[in-house]
Amino acid sequence: MIDMNFAMNFRALSTVCVLSLTSVLSAQAQTPSVAAQVPAGSFATVNSLPLPNSLLELVLKNNAAQGVANSPELRNVVRGELISRAALSQEAVKLGLDKQDNALAQMELLKQNLLAELLIADHLSKNPVSDAAVRADYDRQVAALTDAKEYKIRNIVLADEASAKAALALVRKGEAFDKVAKEKSIDPSKAQGGDLGWLLSEQINPLIANVVVNLPKGSVSAAPIQVQNSWNIIKVDDIRNFTVPKFDDAKAQIRQAMLNKLRNEFVSKIISSAKVQLAD
After folding, report:
1. Which residues constitute the domain of residue 35?
2. CA gyration radius for the chain?
3. DSSP assignment, residue 220?
4. Is residue 159 situated within a structural domain?
């Protein structure tokens, strides 16, 4: 699979808190005035229960990762938010809300999600993608892309063969392809007249790619192409030689793709090795 032009999404571990409940004033009002009353390693107590500094630093770190610069004002807001949430959560526990079935299920789901991401993050940190590996993958892709072509294509997607044949007949009668796409297609690309942009054949569904690579510039597929539950009419607007990007321009995307592959392989391995038994 050639992925030189595609930045594949890699979902890194994230526990960013959105701050909204309190202000600097509430933080100042709720923070104990006597520092000696707060245990070492904590920034506050709420109903005698300490809130650890690690909690405050985690939220500040996650906000920094989102581009929010650390500052005394931000620390006050974060501190006030955490104090407010602690007070609210303690009240919820006092009322027994944490014992409700729905709450238990949601907390279990949050726990599973967090542990799963921690596991994946741990695996990736222990198996980093080296600069040499990125360069080797770049060289592999460059070799695979020798004499490669890019195709600027449009498509019209219909839910059934009869509708697709009717749309193709309109094109063959002289209706503009983009006009038929806007009026008939069920694909989101209809808004752009079916334009899918420039693609390598490896980036196109194989059933469609087999047709595209044999179509001359400006031509339309002879018949609708079935792909699962849809029928596709394809037009090749243009063809050009693929220009391989320089290593420095491509290395971030390649590393991301390699991390994504590493993540998926690890997840598949863990899931396939698990002993699963479904209820009747």
Report:
1. 24-99
2. 28
3. B
4. yes
